[in-house]
Amino acid sequence: NNDILNSLMGNPDAIVIDNQLWVYYSGHDGTKWSIGLAKGNLDIDHVEKDDVIVIIPGMFASYDPVAFATCSQTPWQNWKLIPQVTEYNGLLKTLQATGNYTLNSNLFVFPYDWRQRITDSGKDLKSFIDSEVKPRNPNSKIDLIGHSLGGLVARSYLQEYAPAGLVDQIITAGSPHQGVSEAYKTWAGGALPEDGAMRAAASLIINICKIRTGSLTSKAAIQKSAPVYKDILPTYPYLKGAATHIYLDMDKLGDEFQNSYLLDLNSSFSNYSNKFTKITSTSYDVAKVYGVFGYM
User: Fold this and answer.
1) Vertex 46, ends 44 and 48: CA angle to 5°?
2) How many CA atoms lie within 13 A of 178 on its CB side?
3) What is the mean pLDDT of residues 282-287?
């Protein structure tokens, strides 16, 4: 029962020891209890009481059964947070425990179609804010908290669609601002997630997309139905010749393996850097280099 499991999630606590911020929380996954702990020197501006907060989840956190079953794009209003996704419960409980925030009043979660181009998700976020957030908070500024891909969606909204002065702060957690080399396996080779349950679900969805898009391979189906993978390809050199281990000239490989979207977004980052706080992790290898056979 999700209500029972949610009730077992302990509210996170934050304390400062020797000028370091420590945050911990406990939770139960239905089998065992676990305790999470993090620390860091975070220079985050004080969040004004009247700022609205919008949380933007990461890839795979949202779903629309119709969109998946038909391999089609559906309105953002149809997308919901997957019930089994509990990564954001602690943050939501913490913010509401302050007494300053109420869910769907001045605290929101934005589920979205993570398969589409990031700029399209940014446009959907604009529609969400215009129709759901601003009418309830007409005089408030907005703070965006984006996890993983959600951080890039937040940037798309700010840098491409937001009215000047509306966004006060953006906090991104584990977002691939320079792209991630793991995306190459999926975009260029149609590789599926390694996790067993997710791999089975992805395989089913891709097989549906093969039929719906007339694609013969998983790669072709993914490139037609999930163009987000191109938007998170690395902006740095990440392909080497398998024999020589020399970095390949990306310009000669053509547009398919280059990430012009993030390069353009990053080129104007300095105009917005005063609004950003990045929380990063060193536990995931985003700078992996792949060898390409056929190149000397």
Assistant:
1) 140
2) 11
3) 42
How buried is residue 175: exposed, middle or buried, by Cβ count under 10 Å (0-12/13-18/19+)? buried
Q: How far is CA 285 from the centre of its chain?
A: 17
pLDDT for 273 beyond 60: yes
φ, ψ for residue 194, nearest 5 deg = -80, -25
Length of the chain: 296
CA distances from 58 to 33, 41, 168, 175, 288 (A): 24, 24, 21, 9, 21
What DSSP designation does 37 have?
E
pLDDT, position 39: 62
What separation in angstroms does the CA of 234 have from each of 117, 147, 157, 244? 15, 18, 21, 21
* Per-residue pLDDT band at 242 (split at 50, 70, 90): confident
From 89, 78, 30, 83, select the one nearest 61 (Cα to Cα).
83
CB 101, CB 95: distance < 8 Å: yes
pLDDT digits (tens, 9 = 90+) for 22-81: 665 555 445 555 566 666 555 555 545 579 999 999 999 999 999 999 999 999 999 999
98 or 175, which is more confident: 175
Structure tokens at 116: 């589409």
Rounded Cα–Cα distance for residues 261 and 235 (Å): 9
